[in-house]
What does this fold into?
Amino acid sequence: MRVRGFAGWLAAALTLIALGIPVGGFAEPRGQLVAALDSDRETLDPHQATGTIDYMVLMHVFDHLIARNPESMKLVGGLAESWRTVDDLTWEFKIRKGVKFQNGEVVNAQAVKFSIDRVLDPAQKSYLRDRFKGITAVQVLDDLTVRLKTEKPNPVLLERLTNLAILPPAYVKDKGDAFIAKNPVGTGPYRFVEWARGQRLVMEASPSYWGPQPAVKTLVFRPIPEVATAIAEMMAGTVDFIRLVPPDQIPAIEGSGKAYITTAPIIRVIFLNFDVAGRAGAGPTQNIKVREAISRAIDVDGIITHVLGGRGLKLGTVVNPMKFGYDASIKPVAYDPARSKQLLAEAGLASGTKLEFMTYSGSIIASRQVGDAVSGYLNKVGIQTNHQHIEDIGLSSNLERTGKLKDIYLASWGSWSVFDADMILYPRFHSSEAFAYVRDPKLDEWLDIGRNTVNAGKRMEAYRQVQKYVADNYLVFPMYAQTSVMAVSNKLNYKAASDETIALWRATWKN
Amino acid sequence: MRAYVIERLVDTGLTCVGISFVVFVFLHLAGDPAKVLLPPEASKEAVADLRRSLGLDDPFFVQYGRFLGNALRGEFGDSFIIRDKALSILLERAPATIELAVAGLLVGVVLAVPLGILAAHRPRSGIDHLASIVSVVGQAVPTFWLGILLILLFAVWSRLVPVSGRSGLRSLILPAVCLGLYLAPIMMRLVRSGMLTVLAQDYVRTARAKGVSEALILWKHALKNVSIPLVTMVGLQFGRLLAGTVVIEIVFAWPGIGFLTVKAVRTLDYPVVQAAVVVVGAAIALVNLATDVVVGYLDPRIRYG
It folds into this structure.
C-alpha cells in the first residue's frame, strides 16, 4: 500500500476503521489459503454471474460503489467516497480519487457509468438488470462525480449498489465479453491468476489495491461439492476454510484440533409459506383458522435446540431484526398444540386430513430434518403431511414462482444481502410478484409506499402495517433467522459476517 | 467388415439424432430456463425478454431444427449458465472422465480376472468362498461410503495420496480404486462362471491329458474363451463410464462430465445437456462398435456383414 505523509497514513487508518479491519496489519501478504466451496463458478464476469456464491467470490477481485462494514453491517463507501441525494429521483456519488484497476486503468465516473450501463443493456442479458432498471440515466458531471437518475424514488438503491461491480471500460471494450468471463480485472484486494474450471480458481493479493493489503497472499477456491470430503481435506490440512458446515458435522470439526467453527446470525429467514391465495388450487390453508392452527402446532424453540444445535433466532416476523423496517413489537406465535386442535375443530378440518408439504435443499441448513420435525408436530395435532423433499433449489424455485406449491412450503429468503424490509416483503406479499402466495390490495398499497418513498419514517410505518397485517392474518408462519456456520483452519483468524458473504481479505495469520 | 463398420457408423448417427430428439422433448417438458436464470424478484417482462433473447419463444420444431442444423456442424451453442461454448465446456471435462474410466476399468480387470480364475480353478475352496464374499460385499457397499472410507484411510490418516481433486497421477489412485472395487465383483463373477464352463470342456481335459501345464491351460487356452464376454462387458462398462460417474466425481471432487451434466439438467442448461447427450451417446456407440471389432478378432467364428 502506498501512502505519502501523515495525511496519507491518517486516511489509510480511517479507511481501515471504516472497513472494520484492525489497524496495524501492514505486513506483506504471505502464505496460501485454500477455501472449499460447494460449487464451481459459472463465470468470472460479475455482471453475468447468477449465484450468490459467485458474487461472494468475485467480491475479492471487484469493488462496488457501496460496501458494507462487516461488524456493524452499515453501508460504507466502496469506490464511492461519499454520496448524497440531490432530490427524490437523483443520487450523486463522489468517486474515490487515485484508485486504479489492476490493469492500470483509472477508476473514474466514466467507469461507473460504463458499468451501470452495461448491466442495464438488454443485450448483456445480465441477471442484475432487473434490480437496477429503475435507473433511467447515469450522468457524468466531472471526472469523479456521477449522478444516477431513477424513475421513482428508490430508497434501496444504495443497498443494491453493493451488488454492482465496477469494471474497467477500455479493457472490457478491447477484450470483449467472452474474454472478461475468464480473465477478470477489477480494483479489489485480489487479482485474478488462474481458473481451471471444476478444479480451482486462484487469486493473488493485488499490490495496487487502494485499501489495506490482505494478510493472505494467495487464495485458492476449490469446488468440493461433498462436505464430508471438504472436512477430510481440512483434517489432512489441505483446506483452510469451509463455507457451509451442517450442524451434525460441527463436533467433527471442533474435535479435530485442526480447525474451529465461526458463526454469525444472518439475514436469511426460514418460514412456512401458506398458499393463501389458492394459486395451486383450493385448499385448507385458505382458511385463517387452519393457518393459525398450524402456526400454534409447531415448537420452533424445539427445532432450534434439537435440529439446529441452538443455532437460530426465533422470529415473529419474516423481516430480520438486522434489517431496516423490522417491527420488534410483533412477537412469535406461542406454541400451543391444545389451542391448535381446537382451531382445527372450529375450522371443520377432520383429524387425519392430509396436506401437501414441500421442502428443498440448497439454502436452508438441515432442511430435510427441519421438514421432518414440522411434519411430526403437525401429526401430533391431527394433520397428516405428504412431505416431499426436492434436492434442487433451481427446481423448487421454479415450482414456487409458478404458483405450484399447494398448502405448505418450507421457504427461505436471503434477500441478496440487502438489509431492507423491501427485499423480502415486496416479493413475498405484493400481488404482482411471482413468489407471492397472497393477493391483497391493502398489502400492495403499503408495499408500494415502502418501495417508492425515501422518507424513512413513512417507510417504517408502511412496513409496520404490512408486518402486523401478515401476523394478524397468519399469512405465513415465521420460524427463525438462520445462523451461518463456517469452519476455519487454526492457522487463521476469521470471523463469519452477518451478510452471509465470505471476505477472505479480512483473514489474518495467527503466527 | 468394412461394410459392417460403415453400416454401424450410419446407425450411430441416426441413434444420436434420435437421442437428441428425446432429450430435447424432455428438457422442454422440464421447465423454463429463463425462470431459473433470473433472480427471484425478476418481473414477468424480464422473464419474457430473456426467453426471447435465448430463442425460447420460437415454436418447438423451429428450436429443434435450429439445434439439429447447428449440431451437424459441431455447434451446440453457448451454455445459458456458463456463457461459453457448450461443446468446449464439455470437452474440457472429457480428459478427466476418460482418465478415470480407463484407470477404474484397469483396476477392476486387474482385480477381477485373477480372482475369477483362481475361484473357478478351485470351486468351493477357501479362495472361491473368499471371492464370493468379496464380490457380494463389493456390490453391496455404497460407492459413496467406500469413497469416504478410502479417503479417511489413505489420505487423512496415512497421507499417502491427496484427499480429492485432480492434480496428477497420485490424485487418480483413490477414485480409480473406488471405481475399480465397484466394477470388479460383476466382472469377477463373469470370469468365474465362464471359466467353470470352459474348464469342464473336452479340449481342456485333452490338454490336461497331454500334460499341458495348468497355468498354460488357465491363462492361455481357457482365458481366451472367457475374454469374449469379458471384453463385451468391459466395452459396455467403459461406454457407461464415459457418461460420468456422478457419485465418485462428487466424493472426490473430480472434474468430470457426470457432475457437469447433472448440474446442467438441474439448471435446465439446454445447450450443455444436449451437447453432453449427443457427444456421449456417439462415444458410447463408437466404443460398442470397437468392442464388436475386438470380439470378432478374438473369436474368428464371429463374422459380420
